[in-house]
Amino acid sequence: MILPTPAQTIGPFYGYALPFPGGADIAPRGHSQVVTVHGSVRDGGGDPVPDALLESWQTVPRPGPGSMRRDPVNGGFAGRNGVDFTGFGRVATDADGHWAIRTLAPPATAPYLALCVFARGLTHHLFTRAYLVRPTEDRLLSTLPPDRARTLMATGDGERTYRFDIHLQGEKETVFLDFRHH
Amino acid sequence: MSLSEPTQRQISAEIAAAHESAATTSRHHPARDFAPYRGTLLRHPHQVPIPLTDDPEAAERTGPVFGVTDVTGLDADLTRQHPGEPLGERITVTGRVLDRVGRPVRGQLVEIWQANASGRYAHQRDQHPAPLDPGFTGAGRCLTDDQGRYRFTTIKPGAYPWRNHLNAWRPGHIHFSVFGTHFTQRLITQMYFPGDPLLPYDPILQSVTDPAARARLVAEYRHELSTPERALGYHWDIVLDGPTATLPDPEDHR
Could you give the CA distance from residue B171 to residue B184 in angstroms, rounded to a whole number? Predict the structure, then answer.
């Protein structure tokens, strides 16, 4: 085993580099099965975090060769190709700490979006999960006390729309996950 | 500036105390609640993250694979993204992306962003009164090759002040974003430059309390990577963390 490279904060000034047009549109626009998941990121004082970046991942049956369109003149991102579903999304919070993504519902066997949270002041990113429905059996949820498990459940918020708020610290602190092996 | 703002001397004493109390533990990653970096105070979770290493069905055990349409040839040379030549010292930064077993991570996206040679980001909210450079934006990306190699041509970023404490200056650094073969190997980090006198004063670098782990964030100058009349060469390998019980790499069974 070789030793890993330590993580460092994303800082506040990633906005011109990491977000890209269509980053929140994981499912092609106009797809009939689209679900919207949205929420806010808040700090321990309850204040919105306007400089957070969220990434979303879910299992994809057939990974594509990439889903970006690129501007042939300057090479910049011109958006998603509008056809492929890659399962990967990236969205920055806005000035009031809010974010929204549009995707396809994950499979019943793993009915959650895997989320990765980055922000100024986070020395190391945080993993969490947004469950859109409560599975009958789940290795993670079954080990958590009900009030903690509740922080991982998105709530219905209109037709095909779910709300999932992330609290970095405090009474409503979201359950975060550790996949490393020490 | 308020009189109660902590001085570098106070912050350095806090860093030394935090390192002292962490000295018995070997931590590869930074402390989340590293008070000398004031931004962590309201943003670190109080509860310990729930370990989740034994679920073979977890969606996190697969990961984004990026394709050739996700990058273009202009992306890896940050000195050619505008009509004019950027100001500053041109550098090449290259290395390999590996997993913890030492296998190359192939075909994955490496993204970088950084300040210009004067220490200013091309970001509207960076109001540090240093010049913007019309020939340099400071964002690049590439896919790793079959050996896991990445390579960028860019400009050595300048130091800049920030408001963590009185007289706080960040050492020159390049931000890196790297994926792996699992979503759990996701890494965002910063590469620093050897010999930078600001390294001991920086609470963000010093949030990594293990000195050997800190040293892994500093690139190495390699003269053989320098190109005549063009650029100085730096080498920096990136090792992605993740569960040790990794799924077999299909490439190993060809």
Answer: 29
Buried b / exposed e across B37-59, counting CB within 10 Å, b at 16+? bbbbebbbbeeebbebbeeeebb
Question: Which residues, in sequence order, are CB contacts of B184 under 8 Å at separation 6+?
Answer: A127, A179, A180, B60, B61, B63, B242, B243
If one counts every other C-beta atom within 10 angstroms of the C-beta of residue B110, the result is 25
Instruction: Give the whole-angstrom CA distance, residue B235 versus residue B95.
Output: 5
* Whether A54 contacts chain B with CB within 8 A: no
Residues of B in contact with A58 (CB under 8 A): 59
Does the pLDDT of residue A181 top 70, yes or no?
A: no
Would you call B234 a catalytic residue per the annotation?
A: no
Q: Among residues B37, B90, B96, B121, which one is catalytic?
A: B121
The domains found in chain A, sorted by start residue, are 34-167 (2.60.130.10)
Residue of A nearest to B188 (CA): A7
Residues of chain B found within 8 Å of residue A175, distances taken between Cβ atoms: 47, 50
Of A133-137, A177-181, B152-156, which gets the smallest average pLDDT?
Answer: A177-181
Provide the ipTM.
0.96
Question: CA separation (Å) from B2 to A104, A133, B42, B165, B201?
Answer: 50, 50, 21, 10, 21
Asked if B170 is an active-site residue, the reply is yes
- CB of A5 within 8 A of CB of B189? yes
Coil vs helix vs strand at A85: coil
Subunit contact B47:A175, Cβ cutoff 8 A: yes
Give B69's pLDDT tier (boundaries 50, 70, 90): confident
What integer pLDDT is reported at residue B254 of this predicted model? 32
What is this structure's pTM? 0.95
